[in-house]
Amino acid sequence: MLAVSVLTVGSARADGTSAAVHSAVQLSAARAAVESADVAGTAWAVDPATNTLVVTADSTVSATDLARLRRQEAIRVERTPGAFRTLLAGGDAIYAPSWRCSVGFNVRKGNTYYFLTAGHCTQGKPPYYATANHSTSIGPTTGTSFPGNDYGIVQYTNGSLAHPSAVDLYNGRQQRITSAGSARVGQSVQRSGSTTGVHGGKVTGLNATVNYGNGNIVRGLIQTDVCAEPGDSGGALFSGSTALGLTSGGSGNCRSGGTTFFQPVTKALSAYGVSVF
């Protein structure tokens, strides 16, 4: 999370019992143990309310691996339906030669315009198109960071394409974006993506780590209860006119719900020296 305080007295729960007190050293050791266990289909973040590392395990994690994780000190294991995956199918739809993702936020550096999206969408630095048949070019990928992070940037080289600082609300309207900020636990947020449109929910964790499998571990993510599906990858997480994150991945779907993770947009803005406008 933003910061985990080392408590000196037990915290009272609603049921009158005391929450466990774990030191920063214990929580750091728990993080290291979970990451070294390398169990695909797990995600973890510190819950400041209980001062515990909460490990969320998807449906692919075996009972044996769950038992192994539960043996670690300062850890609470929870299940989530479905399987964690980056939400790649193949904001507004964008098309690489072999897959579809979503625009996150339009940004600029001076008079040059770009859009941010997920890093797993920009692996290999593909060109991007505005149409499924690749007849309308947007421009080239100019930067990518995945795994570790999950952000990438594509330059607009087609001057005929509009690129407002706004998010598509999929109801004929747009949400103007005027600033970028940091998410906070409990904050009400919305997500826009090309598969499922706009959905809302709350931020449930910060500085989360997700193991998508095959060595693809991403750190420092925003965790939410907002649903998402393949093709929503890269799409915008926002609150009002403030940009917050880029859709990375998650579990479940928009019929049953799930857990979804987002790359904080401020890190991508800083990495590429660009800004919303």
TrEMBL record:
Q: Which cysteines are joined by disulfide bonds?
A: C101-C121, C227-C254
Any idea which residues are catalytic in this one? Answer: H120, D150, S233
Q: Would you name any one GO CC term?
A: extracellular region
Instruction: Give every Peptidase S1 domain span.
Output: 90-269
* Pfam families for this protein: Pro_Al_protease (PF02983), Trypsin (PF00089)
Q: Which residues form a coiled coil?
A: none
The protein's matches in CDD domains, at most eight in alphabetical order, are given as: alphaLP-like
Any idea where the Peptidase S1A alpha-lytic prodomain domain is?
22-71
Provide the family line. Belongs to the peptidase S1 family.
Q: What is this protein called?
A: S1 family peptidase
